[in-house]
Design goal:
By secondary structure, the chain is α+β, with helices and mostly antiparallel strands. About 30% of the residues lie in helices and about 25% in strands. Helix 4 packs across helix 5 (about 180-195). The longest helix is centred in the N-terminal third of the chain and has 16 residues, at about 45-60. The protein is globular, with a radius of gyration of 17 Å.
């Protein structure tokens, strides 16, 4: 069976990825399971560039098909911050409760549509023959006035999705996988991989 490496060691993310890619004829491995340790410098200026940097680096090390994602929160009122710096925003070790509070505070004068924001996820696939593909998924919402919900992580408690009347941290895992930025980008990538893996 063909191997496919997903360039992450995040177990929560791997669970989500395996659920969505379950019907592909490949064995999906995390970096840890593939025995890879790599310190990759993500110095791209877009989600696409950073995802490609990660996928290409691991592909060159292993000669296997590699997927990598880059994702983050874009808040329109503050020039699409934190964007590609979402994980490193206000410092890598800063708790998300502090980051979330800071964003809420910066939007204290924003009302209604001015609070528009989205989660973005780009997935890149790098193949041993040098080919690279990318897919992008988004989930649109607004920044809430307070943190709500216990189910998500990161910025989930502050992204309120009006059509579901809840934040992404209040959603069940099943619903989140269906409508999330990562879920959408992975579904699109799965279609591309099915063509490639024939």
């Amino acid at each position: 069976m063909k191997k496919l490496i997903f360039a992450t060691s995040n177990e929560g993310k791997m669970k989500e990825i395996r659920m969505i890619l379950a019907d592909l004829p490949v064995q999906v491995l995390s970096l840890k399971e593939a025995g890879i340790q790599a310190d990759i410098v993500e110095d791209g200026t877009t989600f696409e560039e950073n995802a490609i940097i990660k996928a290409r680096t691991i592909c060159q090390m292993t000669n296997e098909i590699v997927l990598a994602d880059d994702s983050g929160l874009e808040v329109d009122f503050i020039n699409k911050e934190p964007g590609i710096y979402s994980a490193r925003y206000m410092g890598e070790n800063t708790p998300y409760t502090v980051k979330n509070q800071s964003i809420i505070e910066r939007l204290k004068n924003a009302e209604g549509d001015e609070r528009s924001a989205r989660f973005v996820c780009v997935i890149a696939a790098a193949f041993p023959d040098g080919q690279v593909l990318t897919t992008r998924g988004t989930i649109e919402g607004r920044i809430g006035y307070e943190e709500r919900g216990e189910n998500g992580f990161g910025y989930d408690p502050i992204l309120y999705v009006p059509e579901y009347d809840m934040t992404t941290a209040q959603m069940s895992a099943e619903l989140k996988n269906q409508i999330s930025h990562r879920g959408k980008a992975l579904e699109l990538m799965k279609k591309e991989l099915m063509k490639e893996l024939k």
